[in-house]
Amino acid sequence: MAKERKIILITGATAGIGEAIALLFAQNNWDIIITGRRQERLNKLQQRLEKEHGVAVLSLCFDVRDREATELQLQEIPAHWKQIDVLANNAGLAMGRDKFQDSLVDDWEVMLDTNVKGLLYVSKVVSNFMIENGYGHIINISSIAGKQVYAMGHVYCATKHAVDALSKGMRIDLLAHGIRVTSINPGAVETEFSIVRYKGDLEKANKVYEGFIPLYAADIADNVYYAATRPPHVNINEIIVTCLTQADAFNKIKSS
Ligand code: NDP
Ligand code: 8X3
After folding, report:
1. Is the pLDDT at 1 greater than 80, yes or no?
2. Looking at the domain assignment, is residue 247 inside a domain?
3. CA of 5 to the centre of ligand 1 (A)
4. Residue of the nearest CA to atom 5 in ligand 2?
5. The CATH number of the domain where 157 resides is what?
6. By residue range, what is the domain housing residue 58?
7. Ligand 2 atom 6 nearest Cα
8. pLDDT in tens, 110-134
9. Which residue minimizes the CA distance to atom 4 of ligand 2?
10. Could you please report the per-residue DSSP string of the chain?
11. The total number of structural domains that make up the chain
12. Which residues are part of the catalytic machinery?
């Protein structure tokens, strides 16, 4: 069946940047595959996208750390939905903000398994759909933590450096198939990211965004949409984006 609209698959669409990407692409009449672990949020988002924007939505509930579930869920989508134009590899997280020597091995594993291995599991399946289709675009949400290493960032920064390297490697190997690869590297974006990083400690999480105007999830969705809608001969290799009061991982102006 020939498709009417373009299709984007977004991992981690139940919150923050992923949800904003879903909303922006739906506003622009794309059909959307949304994924995440929280079924209730997926249901709500699906209803919203279908009702407000009249686009088709496929919702897949799985944990990207679970290789078998990830492969099964993606392999089993109807053939029509495999004609994916854009994969936004967005699911990710930081866990803890402690000195290396004090940090928890369990936290390292969650970050490595989600940000690196989960991204790989999804990309392997979807890049093969794209090769079969003869087109596609993989957009990896990395971070300025993938460009610089800051204190008490060790493993999170390592996972995002890995995403940076993987984006480069994928771009080279998928070149012959006409598949574009972009990495987007945001500075501080106000989402549920810090609530997750500080394990539900709202006071610590809110402090991260005090005293300056951070980026918002919609700003990153805008970057993704920009990269996804360039003319076919153009590939945006990477975008590094911060709010006006942040120069890099180390220099941020905050009012007291
Ligand atoms: P949020 O916490 O708001 O959203 C994270 C999303 O990832 C959720 O939808 C969550 O869904 C999903 N997710 C997390 N773990 C898994 C998993 N194991 N399996 C499936 N889905 C998962 O954070 P952001 O929107 O800020 O983060 C999105 C991406 O942006 C991440 O990769 C993050 O590293 C990156 N980033 C964030 C920045 C920031 O300052 N906020 C800056 C730079 C990059 P669910 O819980 O339902 O599974
Ligand atoms: C999230 C932004 O600065 O906390 O990737 O690493 S930062």
Report:
1. no
2. no
3. 26
4. 143
5. 3.40.50.720
6. 7-241
7. 145
8. 999 999 999 999 999 999 999 999 9
9. 188
10. ---SS-EEEESS-SSHHHHHHHHHHHHTT-EEEEEES-HHHHHHHHHHHHHHH---EEEEE--TT-HHHHHHHHHTS-GGGG--SEEEE----------GGGS-HHHHHHHIIIIIIIHHHHHHHHHHHHHHHT-EEEEEE--GGGT---TT-HHHHHHHHHHHHHHHHHHHHHGGGTEEEEEEEES-EESSHHHHHTTT-HHHHHHHTTTS--EEHHHHHHHHHHHHTS-TT----EEEE--TTB-SSS-B----
11. 1
12. 156
